[in-house]
Amino acid sequence: MSKLPEIKPNRLAIKVKSVAERAIRKGHPWVFESAISKQSGEGQAGDLAIIYDGKKNKFLAVGLWDPNSPIRIKVLQSNTPANINEDWFNQKVAQAKAIREPLLKSETNSYRLLFGENDKVPGLICDVYSSVVVVKIYSAIWFPYLKAILPAIVKHTNASAIVLRMSRNLQKPEIESHGLKDGDVLYGTLEKENVIFTEHGLQFYANVIKGHKTGYFLDHRHNRKKVGELAEGKAVLDIFSYAGGFTVHALAGGAKEVISLDISRQAQELAKENVRLNNLDKDKHQIMVADAFKGMQALIDDRKQFDIVVVDPPSFAKSAADIPQATKSYERLTRLAVRLVKKSGILLSASCSSRIKQEEYFELIEAVLDSTGRRFKLIEKTDHDVDHPIGFAEGGYLKSGYYQLD
Ligand code: SAH
Q1: Domain identity same for 173 and 104
Q2: Is residue 1 predicted with pLDDT exceeding 90?
Q3: Cα 269 to chain center, whole Å?
Q4: For 157-183, what is each residue's pLDDT tens digit?
Q5: Which of 70, 130, 203, 401 has the most Cβ atoms closer than 10 angstroms to its Cβ?
Q6: Residue 204: inside a domain, yes or no?
Q7: Last residue of a domain, one of 146, 163, 196
Q8: Which residues, 6+ apart, have CB-to-CB distance to 193 below 8 Å?
Q9: CA of 239 to the centre of ligand 1 (A)
């Protein structure tokens, strides 16, 4: 771990408005800039912010100061004081690992070990692909703590390599990144950037250097398994298929035909490789490189219909301002998808927009289904798999509904 910078964070004493105090006591991990009433000095990214209560000046929480975000303090621990050191990180990683143990009893060696705020490490995620670990940071607050958290990650994963990924906002020239860059191998040796891992008995490649997020979307694992279980003898359409996660599970589950639809040629090539990796019948698999809306319209024009249609778009609402447009996109997608579902077929409609709440999403989808005149039966709603635990109201983002259409 020689590359890791030695950065000594400063300490800041902070007071916050009473509404924020109440939220912090209840364990909310975010303190907005506007909630801060007093601060002992100017902070640098990653400085330790010690929050005291307004009346008695007693310890309230410790968090990391983030000058680049309106969420100015990301809380690590509230109500009891803590030294944020290797031991503290070791405890957090151990607790996180324990939650994931049930999943690791299945034929799966890929999982999210740390899920940001939900595992008390705000702005940091850690995904494991077999023996390769990817740490992705979304804020400069983490640079000073990589040295303390990495040994804990190595200990609880037996990693052969740890790769650092950085969000786009951290790759801007004005951000001090202490000599680190996206894709750096911080520990061990990375043999190949395409890492093979297992998900419920099936093999996949994740490109841990160039792939989206950390290389693969682990969050839909449980839904992919379910689609595999439903797929026997079925024609399946996998829209926004990326590396073909749903596609591979469907083919392995005995689907008679699967079409993967995605705008990215690179993703589609990976999907084909994933089909090959599992020795599945490539003649049953077709790819369509197209914009989803146009591709779906083309399939409708060809009078194609499927027993299972999976719709798993990228996040449409990254900020509150995007919500109206996102709502329209979900409506349009659903209207198109319905026309592609055979009688008694299943529509799996998923959303990863954290700004759109679960109830709102299902209401929106069901209103569209109603408006199409097709009767539908809700089979199941799912949220997060065990490796994406939800620790606070805003921590959840994924929702999926299985609808059987008349
Ligand atoms: N279902 C996948 C994950 C989907 S991620 C899984 O289970 O792993 C979202 C995908 O949507 C990405 O692969 C991206 O290339 C694709 N995408 C984004 N915009 C698109 C568009 N307009 N049309 C088709 N695909 C699009």
Answers
A1: yes
A2: no
A3: 22
A4: 989 999 999 999 999 999 999 999 999
A5: 401
A6: no
A7: 196
A8: 207, 208, 209, 210
A9: 7
